[in-house]
Every structure is written in structure tokens, then in C-alpha cells.
Amino acid sequence: MPKPRLIIPNPSDGTSPDLAIYHTTSRVVHRQFLFQADEKEQFRVLMRMYERFSGCRILSYCVMTNHFHLLLEVPPPPSDEEFGISEEELIHRLGGLYSRAYVAGVQAEVLEARMIAEGKREHFSRLSKADQKKEIAYGRAQLATIFERYTKRMHSLSEFMRGLLQRYTRWFNKRHGMRGTLWEDRFHSVIVQSGLTARTMAAYIDLNPVRAGICKDPADYRWSSYGEAVGGGRGATKAQSGLVRALRGHESHTGTSRAWAQGGISKEYRKLLLTNGSEQTANCSDGRKRTHRKGIDRKVAEKEKVRLENEEARDLKIAKAVHCKVRYFRDGAVLGSKKFVNDFFESQRDRFSPKRKDGARKARGSLKELAGEIWSLRDLKDG
Fold first, then answer.
1. Strands of the chain, DSSP E
2. Residues 70 and 211 in one domain
3. Strand pairing category for 375-376 and 67-73
4. Does residue 278 contact residue 298 with C-beta atoms inside 8 Å?
5. pLDDT band at 300 (very low <50, low <70, confident <90, very high)
6. Residue 330, Cα to own-chain centre: how many angstroms?
7. Count of domains forming the chain
8. The domain containing residue 116 runs over which residues?
9. Pair (138, 270) in one structural domain
10. Model pLDDT for residues 89-119, shown as the tens digit of each residue
């Protein structure tokens, strides 16, 4: 039986927790290259539908031919509403996932229960006080049942991924006349601290098609957060606000598309993606050059380097790390500062061996450039 997934706990003292951000990924069974343009587009459509329904927020994503990456923020359920969210918010979220007819039916059901709970039905005044109390209690119970039917699937990493993967599998199998599972295993998830680690992870995700040699510039890949953010269209503002949140969430920035351009974040993120990301070549014995590392066109990168001479050294370190395949990003379990990882370790102490004294492990391999700044819950080597 698989172990329970590591989830950031909400504090019981009422304080605001650190942003609950997860890097999630899943691969197609047998790692077959099944996703072409239409399949990638449908995944993105369903991904946005579940984002609206669940209340979760996609900060960064990339859909490849046999796997995908998501950087997902999972906020705690609101506490200022009687049933977690308002009736208006419930109807709005349902509209992202269900048909108009279905949503209208739920809306009528909510209205009927609300009338009962507020004693507004015609016969209410003719009831005894005891029966009036029973009727109001019944109406409130009906409202609670309706809301719980949907809210139990909101603000949850597992419910978001389960709904998205199952619905996409049904669509894919119907389209291609297939049966059975589409994904090779449970999705992988890594807890990511906001700030430097989330920023690094977002860049890592958007550079996937560059590392795979699919394109020379991450802006040219349509099915990624950066490609969507700079490509325009209906989804551009969503992608832009998500990346703003990834880069500025630790500063309590809500993440708006306006800040993408006016706040200079688009230029900052572009620099991060291009810095030290050019392809590398090596001379072979026969005199020909062989590409040693796939990447961004050298001329484009060189122009960017001229503009980046006065940038912080940290950005260079991030770019160097995210241009490689980094095992920590998939298997690290928890990534962040030493304090962040140790605090999480202490909050989940009963899940680890009594012999283990602390949680944070210094990153090695491809992440050695950021050792001391990004720590992991697991002691790994890139492989």
C-alpha cells in the first residue's frame, strides 16, 4: 500500500501558513509519446477547468509528449463563509466544470434549500414554533449537504490531480478507441517553498522543451506557462498572473497579469530563462562540432548576457541548475530553505525514523550551485 502523500499542514493557531506550493508530474504508461498538438491542448483546457473549480492556482506548467509538469498552489479553504465558500462562488466554480443545465439545476437546488432554511416557504407561518425550528434545521442541513458534495473536492492537491487525470484519461481513451489506465503510476509531488525555490522550479518547468531539443527558445513552445504568457490569446492573462505569483508570492503579491508587464516581471523572468541557457558544443575527433547540451540559440543568449552583466549572481546559479534534469525537482519530497525543510520535518516527525535527527539535506549534483540556499528532505544524487 502506498504511503500517504506529504501535505503542508494548516496551522491550528490561526496564523497564515507558508504558501502551499507543489511541483507535480506524471508520465504516460510505458513512457509512450502519445500527446500531439490536440492532446496537449485538451490537457491545458481541462487543467484550467479544474483550476477554476478547485480554487487551486497553476503557477507554472508544461505539457510534453509523454508527461507534464505543474507548479500548483493549494490555498486553505476560506473560513469567512458559512459553508466554506459563498453561493455565488460555488455557482461560479461549477460553471468551469459542468454544463449550464447542470449548474442551473444545482442553483435551483440551493435556492430551494435556502428558502427552507430562512423560513420563506408559503406554509411556514402556519407551522408551530417547534415545526418551524425543525424546518429551518432541515433547510440548513440540505444546504450543508449540497455544499459538501462539491467543496470536499476543492482546495486539495489529491482531488485536483485525481479529477484532472481521470477526466483526461476518459477523453483520451474515447478519442483513440483505447481502454485502461493512461498514466504509469501515482503522480509525483514535491513540496516547494515560496520565494527562491518556487522561482527556480517555475524556470525549470518552462525550460523543459528547450532541454528536450523541441525548441530553441521557451517562448516558442505553446503548451507551457511562459509560451502562453508571451503568446497572447485568452489564456495569456492566466499564465502571466500565475508566473507573477510564482516569482512574487513570498512578498504577499496576489499575482496579477498587470504586474507581468508594468512591474517588470516579464523581463526578469525572461532573463532568468535565458541566462547561461545557450546550447553547448564540443569538438569531435573528426573535426566536427557536436551539441553537448541542447539549449537556447547562442546568439540570442549572448545578447541577453550583455544586458545581464550587472545582475545578481544568484540568477546565474538558478539558470545553470534549471537547465539540467534535476532529480530533486521530482523526488526531493520537500524543497526550500534549511529552516523551511526542518520545520516541516518537525511537524511530521512521527513519519520518520527515531534515529533521524534533522530533516534538511544539502542539495548536490545539478543543484550544487544553490547548495546552502535550497535544501531537500531527501538525500539524493541526480541520476
1. 21-27, 57-63, 67-73, 188-192, 280-283, 289-293, 334-336, 361-362, 375-376
2. yes
3. unpaired
4. yes
5. low
6. 13
7. 2
8. 87-148
9. no
10. 999 999 999 999 999 999 999 999 999 998 8
